[in-house]
Structures are given as C-alpha cells and as structure tokens.
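Bit of a strange request maybe. I'm writing a small parser for structure token strings and I need a real example to test against, not something I typed by hand. Could someone generate the tokens for this chain?
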Amino acid sequence: MTLGIVFVSRTLGRLHQTDYLRGGGVSATGVGMLRVQKVKVDEIYVPTARKKTLHPETVRHLAEDILENGMKTPIQVRHDGKRHILVEGLHRLEAAKWLGETEIEAYLVQAKRH
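Reply from user aminoacidic:
Good idea to test on real output. This should exercise your parser:
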C-alpha cells in the first residue's frame, strides 16, 4: 500500500507550518487523494481569529519566494455550503493577493470550525 499524503513539517521564521504533499495511491486510512482546485482569492473568507496571526514581513518574504519558485503547496479551504473558508495557508493567500493573483490552488478539505 502506498501512502497518499506525506506530512512535512518546516519552520518559517517563528511559524511552524505543516505541508501536505501529494503522493500516489491511497492513504493509510483508505481515503483517496486530496484534489487541487483553483479558488478565487476574493471569495475565500478568513476567520477573524486567523487574521490576527498575520505577520506582514512573512507575507513579503513568501511573495518574493513565490515570484522566484512558484507556489509550492496549495492552501486548504473548506466549503460551508455558501463560501470557501480558509483552514490553512493565511500567509500564502495574502502573498498571492499581494502579487495580484486572482486565483489560488487549494485543497478542499473537511475540517471542523476553529
């Protein structure tokens, strides 16, 4: 059996981020792969509590890296029936907005509310 999702932890400044990388096959839990989809950045709701964790300097550094290397890891959103809600990837979302992107790659996940 192949593991479908690989969890990679990395440290970006003071932030600790877990990235979910795509692999082949089915995950150990038997759940299929997460599918990447394009989502309009202006249609993603960011919860107020999450907005408070934003570090503008991190956004700037990340935007520079995205310009040089592209977006490496899609953000994660959930859909509540009306809109997409950010689950993970605030700094990547804000960097994409800062760069003038109108869409961003995202994993649609099933997640509990924060």
